[in-house]
Amino acid sequence: MKKTFILFLLILCYKTTIAGEIHGVVINKDKGVSFASITFLGTKIGSQADENGKFILRNTPNGKQTIQISSVGFKTKQLIINILVDKVTNLNIEIEEENAQLREVVVTGTMKETTINESPAPIQILNPTFFRKNPTPSLFESLSMVNGVRPQLNCNVCNTGDIHINGMEGPYTMVMIDGMPIVSALSSVYGLSGIPNSMVERIEVMKGPASTLYGSEAVGGLINVITKNPSKAPKFNFDFNSSTYLENNFDASTKAQIGKFDVLFSGNYFLFNRRWDINNDNFTDITLQNRISLFNKWSMQRPNNRTFNIAARYIYEDRFGGEMQWSKTNRGDSKVYGESIFTKRIEMLGNYQLPIKNQKITFNFSFNQHQQNSVYGNTIYLATQRIAFGQLLWDKKISNNHDALFGATLRRTFYDDNTPVTQISTTQNAPDLIWLPGIFGQDEVTINAKNKLLLGIRYDYNSKHGSIASPRINWKFSPNKSNIMRLSLGNGYRVVNLFSEDHAALTGSRKVLIINDLKPERSYNSNLDYQHFFTFGKGYGNIQLNGFYTYFANKIIADYDQNPELVVFDNLKGYGISKGVALNAEFSFISGLKLFAGTTFMDVYRVENHQKINQIQTPHLTGNYAFSYALNKIQLTFDLTGNFYSPMRLPVVRAYGDTRPEYSPWFGIHNIQATKRLPNGINIYGGIKNLTNFLPKDPIFRADSPFSQQFDPSYNYAPMQGIRGFVGIRWSIF
């Protein structure tokens, strides 16, 4: 009897741990995926689909289980199912092609929703998951992971920076939020570090001129930050990380339904208040920062799929760099040198589709105010900038082969400061006010299934510089789904904004000298892009090759070599050239290994009096990589990321006995991270940044005191942060 009872218990235990069977089919676009692999995570139980995608799993554990489905050329998918004892579970599992990225929606290249595969202009999409391979507190630092895009620190004291695309300096790069010119001119110097990752759904990068659609500043390329859609955002998202440098970054967001609106609330707080001086020059290696950013977006879907979105953001930052003994009582005096910058910034942007029957007409609008209270030693800089922008778009499909877009824009820029830039006399100030109305049109012509042509032209009238026209043409040739070739020809223009380029004069105690009335720059650009997608035995990949060439006329030059006490602005009496090639390669294996590597070779220079002069702080060769390996059974991922740079020309002050090398050495910054995925959407991560502990030498030159004309902090080519560890926790609830 006892033996019978024990046998009964064993059978019962067996019955409660083993379910019946799982019958299913793996499909893609209603077709079975042949020989797909189906496995239970954390077990050895698995199966393989037949040639029609059908499979059977026997002796499966009961309760909630996670199965993983993978196949060459398709995205790996994980699915949580609840298995009941003695029951047959039927599953119909759909997986996506890995090349589904070709169907991702983009808006930047044509100002209307299209897919990467169909876009005549080459666009690169970057998702937050890509940036999490090397977590950073702001967009500015994150972009170092993008091939051909380089965040450049321009001052070793206040750590101002800008974004270089294909070697062209920051003023040539337009940074937008939801297609609106939010970050420009004055705000481009400090505003880039105030864009947190918590508000970002994706980032679209377009290399090459885009003045036809976006006007001035979009000469070298543009970065369009697409904010999260409240209806698709997580119900709750939390991310906190800290480093051994005591940098603390906190991101959080939540969404709610208020009336007919989906609402997203997002906030970021970054605090770094530890003074470091590893090179013992009595100056802070990196600036102290106390920054808060609040973002709120309301979205409503109206009848006939019309949308209405409105968003607002507030930023406050207290930033300091300078001598180690500086205190706030020294702000603006001549005793202890410090650079203290207070920034207050508000933004508002939105779009509304007009209720006009059978027509898609959208009104976009934005407004931002940037207030800055700064001291650079004993130089006080006070400035206010306001930009109001309105845009009316008419998206009109003329026929099956012609898809047109027409637009009218109006931009008003107000700028005032306490420098000679806006002073008529010592007692009278004249704020800079620019009106910029414009119209544009484009026609996307589908010639046949393989060829597409995009023709566009823009006309702007600048209240200071008069009429400016910018045409462009894009051609896309795609013989099949695996190969895409794009050719772009365009013309762009740029109107100078002095502060965005002469902040080095304030921090380096130089004076600004404008030789003549500055004329708008003109650029003539060509860009050839080829991309190939392929699959191989145990994975898939794609290779992208891009060649670019830009010729500049009337190039506006900030000359630091003519006189060590001046920054001389003038239109170049010659021409400028930016040319190069870029290569990206990406591979993904079913084993869990993913590899990405990119490199850009470029030559950026100007020719003046028959002499070639290389652009400062622009290396000939840059590269980046990201290697990831996922151990799915234990839910652990390793990421190795990094950048490398060839020597670049640096600003030296030979007139005052500056003996520092004119060119930087070869160098690289490398990082490693491990991420552990826990139940309920919790991730714990940690790692090491700057594994090789690289630090630039002699970043600050001062033959005398930092208040003298000999003081120069612009000799910069790499961050002044050595090796450091970091840890963080991330939690998302959908």
TrEMBL record:
Residues 1-19 form the signal peptide. It comes from the Bacteria. This is Vitamin B12 transporter BtuB. Pfam families: CarbopepD_reg_2, Plug, TonB_dep_Rec_b-barrel. PROSITE patterns: TONB_DEPENDENT_REC_3. InterPro entries: Beta-barrel_TonB, Beta-barrel_TonB_sf, CarboxyPept-like_regulatory, Plug_dom, Plug_dom_sf, TonB-dep_rcpt-like. Residues 117-221 form the TonB-dependent receptor plug domain. It comes from Emticicia aquatica.
